Amino acid sequence: MTTPQEMRDLVQRLLTYEANAAKTSEPVESRVFRIYEKLRQSLGEFAGTAAFQSLASRALAMARSEMPSLRAAQISADGRLKGLGQGLGLGQSEFGPQIYSEEDRYGEQRTGDEGTVVITRLLGLLFTFLGEPVTLRLLRNAWPGAAIDDRISENGRKA
Amino acid sequence: MSNQDKVKINKLPTGVPGLDEIVGGGLPEFSFNIIAGAPGSGKTTLAHQFVFANATSERPALYFTVLGESAIKMLRYQQQYAFFDPTKLPDSIRFINLSQVVLEKDLGAVLEEITKEVEKANPAVVVVDSFRTMVRKPQSDMDLQSFIQRLALFLASWQATTFLIGEYAEDELRDNPIFTVADGLFWLRQTAERNSIVRKLQVIKLRGQDSVPGLHTFRITDAGVQAFSRTFGLTSRKRNPPSNRRLCFGIPELDKMLDGGVREGDSVLVAGSSGTGKSVLATQFISEGIRHGEPGIVAVFEERPEAYAERATSLGLDLETPQKDGQLTILYLRPLDLSVDETMQSILDAVEKIGAKRLVIDSLAGFEMALSPGFRADFRESLYRMIFALTGIGVTILSTVEVDESFTEFPFSTYSISFLTDDIIRLRYVSIDGQLRKIMVVIKMRGGNHAKDIREYEITSKGVVILGERLTNYQALISGIPVRSDRSDPKPEPS
Prior knowledge:
The complex is a heterodimer of chains A (159) and B (495). Chain A is mainly alpha-helical and 159 residues long.
């Protein structure tokens, strides 16, 4: 069984991959956005928008217990994650790359954290429903270049 | 047109044990097939088995899901089956959900979407599950028929073998224009018969090759769908020519009565009431075969293999060692919803595995009880198919059957199956001198002479032992209540 820490590690690996793939430095929020969108696209194609939307809604509900600031976030009918950062009083209305002033840097990090928690929960649900091998194969398909091990729950896993 | 001028249609493995035999060696490549049946009948599992058996990364399978079961749920459950290979996902097997297109657009858009994906992936296999949910939207039959025709044409041109999966009730099968387009039409059904569920499969249509007609039972286990052909997969095998070789029981007097033993490839029936020693005789038959290097199978229904072997030990017969040496298999077939075909498959697998020459079915009554009630009605017909198939490959079958002891009749079997047997040995009780004693007589031996003697026997620690000479000092022995005649030979000691 994959532990929450292992799940967070997996998301971290995806974030690292996205950071390396980006040409320029960018806020973590943008990477989180890309990861979520890739998941939405690939899982939407695989399972359908409605199935993804249900799964994402459940992931968001679970994530709220961990991060109450997600109370304003929502999953739209097409599965997009909206309203990140609103619970932090940042005035952000939709999850996506935005330009912040220097003083908003903290909020930007927090928005990224919120997204990370949602993605972690989403992957956790996929592990629950599909099991580790099938989920990792779907992730490899969405991130062909990323190093995603077959057994992330084994000791000595690689990044 | 000579055979070499004809286009060769490749046959693809179905991935379903037993189904290749039913469809005539495999599914025609590039065929357009419909799998129809009620919910829960195994359609999706069957399609998955085909997909996993045939998809490669070079020629993948595209599995389009429409409305109904989502791919996540589908994979959650399908991966429980042994055939599921996660390494095939997603390079060799891709799941694509079309529900949004179906909900928001028309069949033209669905076709366009499928076309786009097929052109992109160049798949060897395409599945649309469930295509019936697409057509429940209100539209004219012509739209649907046109859609199916265009889809079939397109997918065949793209060299894809296709399955459309649909929930259909039995009465929808007739005169449905959709089915005329299909090259193959597979019908899966499950029915409740008393307390048992019986699954059956029918190949209603399969263009280009011979399939085995009729309803074939199938079962869904951890391994997936397993089909049991009505011909037991033996259609392609040549029947062995009749043999004159005799197989003995190792009971000298009985073997003499049988003119040296039963003929190889015969079906022998040992009939008698409870306690007359039918199983003992059967055990001696199988044990003697093993002694002569003829591997054997014992199919038991009424007791466990350990108990069967233990009882043999009490008769001085060792069934443990030959089991360890691969010379003997004792099959315990007890589930109460078996079909004859499943039982046969188990027996055939065991026969093939150890190269069995002798088979004991102990007993037919137990066999019948192990069957689903629905199959019991066809027991005689099924038995005929089974015996014909097995003796055809040279296996000698000894079946035991319990008959009600009557003092006015002399029945051979309660199943009216004596016509299915080549040889009949009848055991029965008789009342003599205030004792309940046992007599044995060979009723019938097809293709051979046999003794007409009625012999008394006992069951001892050495098994069945025939006593003395034929009983000449009694009349009406087979009535069970003989009358002493004038002649009175002394009773010999057991030989």
